[in-house]
Protein 1
Amino acid sequence: MRHPRPPQPPSPERSAELRRRFAEEARSERPDLSALCLLVGAEGDGSLDEAGLGAAQVELDRLAGELPFRPGTPRAWAEALRDLLGERYGFHGVGADYRRLESSLLHAVLRCRRGLPILLSVVWMEVARRAGAPVYGVALPGHFVVGFGAEPGLAGGSAGGVEERVLVDPFDGGRLLSGDDAEALVAGATGTTGAAGLTSSMLEPAAPLDVVTRVLNNVRAWAAGRPEQSAVGLWAIELALLLPSHAARLRYERARLLVERGEFLAGAGELEAYAEVVGVVDEAGAERVRGEARVARAMLN
């Protein structure tokens, strides 16, 4: 069975404009999660123009407008989102979605109502936020979910009541999660068992830029298993490098990817620049990277 071809990238001029806006939004005082995810989508899908970006935001607004007015408790909010998005509109995920690049692109998830856990969670969070719900993302290992209620650590976030915080799994249509359910999700991702596998730090709210970083990591992982899609891996790395905080090793990954794509001179230059940074703390490691750069330059002959 042949799989549909992934979406084609935008023009270089369009890409440059998208990246400028992405960097600007990421460095703003309050980064907008939906805007950032849609800009990622536009970088991955050249057919997403300005009208399409606006239409996706309008769709999120429309969905929020269909929620009941102020349902009440966190559980009531969670059930209202489940009823609307999971049951009425059929947003959910299946295993096959992990094989599709579109599962990491917000506009495509809004259109087909399928996607990875983190992108479905973005839909849940953005619709809920627009409706005034106390909502936040929770980056469990290997599986992103959504929390309703007072964020852990905030004033009032630990005062009694079993309905104070509720977790839901948008990948499973918005199923409300018990403590045992959350532990099972963590166990499935980490191999641990019981409550020891689920720590309080795992339940901390995920900041918008952390969510975007994880989305881009998913895109990079998708491309890494498909050498013919190295261009996708490259733009995902380059967007991640525009975030205010990123791993220095991303520059090494970008350099290696350039070499693998046959851009030997550019890759060698990037490797040498990375070696200069690494050399401050690890001269032996820097020398290994310089050796890779010499090999890359030799491939030009």
Protein 2
Amino acid sequence: MRTRRTTRAGQYLALLAYLVFLAFPFLWLLSTAFKPPRELGSLHPTWVPKDPTLANFRQAFDEQPLLDALLNSLVAAVGAAVVAVLIATPMAYVIARRRTLLARAATGWVVVSQAFPFVLVIIPLFLVLKNLRLINSVPGLIMVYVVWALPFALWMLVGYVRALPPELEEAAAVDGAGRARTLVSVTAPLLAPGIVATALFAFVTAWNEFFFALVLLKSPEKQTLPVVLTHFIGDEGAADLGPLAAAAFLATLPSLVIFAVIQKRITGGMLAGAVKS
């Protein structure tokens, strides 16, 4: 009994240390965003600002087009998430239900494609977008994000589909439903937690992505938020710390809010009420 309690206490301590490790950057960023310049340069920094101010936020919006960048990032992230899910869901269903050589080859390609570095694919993508006249455009960036997020989204959804009992689809077939009707009316509702989790992954990946946006978007009015954040760093590498922290804090809020809203959906029961009595 004592050994079990010691083990459990150690697990809780490890979990607490991990949570502190995750929360530290965000809390320090939040503290920095509200500090006046004299506290930012202090040799003895404090967690809680002694004289909190909103000047950093005002300066950030005055110096850079944060609202335009926020809108561009939002359009790109939402578009990539929606398109990736719409493409990955039927593909995952086919791969999970048809155990053919082609399905296994597709699964293997999904795994291998995750090892490709950004630098390896940026030149072919740039040439394709150039031929399609989508360079320096948000739709072109959405296309790139979909291509990059699709393999992992497909991998996630395949696991969710394989977790569904085939008997549900067999019952729908007995009732006269075809493959398409079964996918829409039976499989898709049961996949809701997996679809939401996959969409969240695609959204966060696109929202935080920097390299593709930096290479493909040249016009200042079309740049995304991660690219605009680099403008707070001067030519000599000196960062305007207060406005940078304020802008970075605002950039983290959408992901946190979206996750907080849908986290119950992700962890909800996937098959609750699915089986007929």
